[in-house]
Specification:
alpha/beta; four-stranded mixed beta sheet
């Protein structure tokens, strides 16, 4: 199992190009099941989760042609309507094949999904919405089995805001008969990216970027060309790294309009940010100022950035407080950060951080994707050597993180 070895205390200087967004790429890849035409995708990140999704799609009969960050999908000859446990168990986003399969072929058999152990992320809202559209759904032997000759448009109000639920129901609705209204829809930029691509494929969607999506079903979709949106979480993660270590970096190939709340918090920490087009220059000297925040749905502070900002807060000039409202089990990085010398206590869904002057390197273990990133940031800031174990979590969502950090001066190597 691979590990990362980090010798901390190095300032970061140079340019980092941001990859395509994992959370946009995965549903966009699943949309390849909606058409018999070519879906020509660029800026597809090179991630373990993307490779898993492509294997899953290939076993359905979807043709996959890949050249680095360029992927072409063709769904003219789908032969299997099943997503097996062996592929689904490691990645919750696999549930996103359910809506497209059911909408286009009238049937789908999908294993209940796995993924990061950061709390309960049920798929009941997906099932509720599809049943409202006329699907007959049973759950047996760990599989969701859905059938419907033709999905019917209807009004769906989810009990909570769910990103993957919105994406699944949106992909189902574009081929349903009549009008579907999705109330309480997720507004994340990654949902918007999927919706914009579906429109380019011939879908009729109104209200993109709002919490009310109105979809007029069409008979068929055609292929299109699409560039996956830049990864706002990766960009913010590298900005947190320079906040923790000091230095002067330029983040390129990014979208500065989709993570304003994170940029505002970085400015509060003392990071000097200069934004020009798709580039952000970040300069930092000295210890950061503490920032408190509460995670919530977009456009609020993203739960996927909670751990990384907490890592910076551990060496801030004072106390801070972090409240996690999305996932009930997303403080597993706290005990590992404390192993590096941080002073963090938790009470329910709130963490209390007392900033310390320095962290000291130690062996730590990653527990989920974003926790992995927080440990890398802490290791970069710590004195001495930090070993981060179980980095397969990191590889699920960051495209060659150690290579990008090494290129800007970090002392970080992968140990096989």
């Amino acid at each position: 199992m691979d590990k990362l070895q980090i010798v901390g205390g190095k300032r970061l200087n140079g340019d980092i190009a941001i990859s395509g967004a994992k959370n946009a790429a995965l549903p966009i890849l699943c949309a390849g099941l909606l058409t018999a035409g070519d879906l020509d995708l660029t800026n597809v990140p090179r991630l373990h989760d993307v490779r898993t999704m492509l294997r899953l799609l290939e076993q359905t009969g979807l043709k996959v042609t890949q050249d680095d960050e360029h992927v072409v999908l063709n769904g003219a000859n789908i032969t299997s309507l099943e997503a097996p446990y062996e592929l689904v168990k490691t990645m919750r986003a696999s549930i996103l094949v359910l809506g497209p399969m059911l909408a286009r072929f009238g049937e789908a058999r999908v294993s209940l999904p796995g993924g990061c152990a950061i709390g309960s992320r049920p798929v009941d809202q997906h099932i509720k919405g599809l049943r409202a559209m006329g699907a007959d759904i049973t759950i047996e032997g760990g599989y969701i089995h859905a059938k419907c000759a033709k999905l019917q448009g209807t009004r769906i109000h989810t009990d909570m805001i769910t990103v993957t639920g919105t994406e699944n129901l949106l992909m189902a609705a574009v081929l349903a008969e009549g009008e579907t209204i999705l109330e309480n829809a997720a507004r994340e930029p990654e949902v918007v990216d999927l919706a914009n691509m579906l429109v380019a494929m011939g879908a009729k969607i109104e209200g993109i970027g709002t919490d009310r999506l109105v979809i007029q079903g069409v008979d068929a979709l055609h292929g299109t060309k699409h560039a996956v949106i830049s990864d706002r979480i990766e960009a913010a993660t590298f900005l947190c790294a320079v906040a923790a270590t000091g230095g002067d970096i330029r983040i390129t190939n990014t979208r500065t309009d989709i993570f304003d709340v994170a940029l505002d918090k970085l400015r509060e920490m003392g990071v000097q940010l200069t934004v020009e087009g798709d580039t952000i220059r970040a300069r930092m000297d000295g210890r950061p100022q503490p920032v408190s925040f509460r995670t919530t749905e977009y456009p609020g502070f993203p739960t996927d950035m909670q751990a990384q900002f907490m890592a910076v807060d551990t060496i801030a000039r004072g106390p801070s407080r972090v409240t996690e409202t999305i996932f009930e089990n997303r403080f597993m990085h706290v005990q590992e950060l404390n192993r590096l010398g941080a002073s963090i206590s938790t009470e329910g869904n709130t963490a209390f951080i007392e900033g310390v002057e320095r962290l000291v390197g130690a062996p730590v273990m990653a527990t989920d994707l974003r926790a992995s990133a927080s440990l890398v940031i802490a290791g970069l800031a710590a004195e001495g050597t930090t070993i981060v174990d179980r980095i397969y979590h990191l590889d699920r969502g960051y495209d060659r993180m150690e290579a990008k950090l090494s290129a800007v001066g970090a002392d970080i190597v992968r140990i096989k």
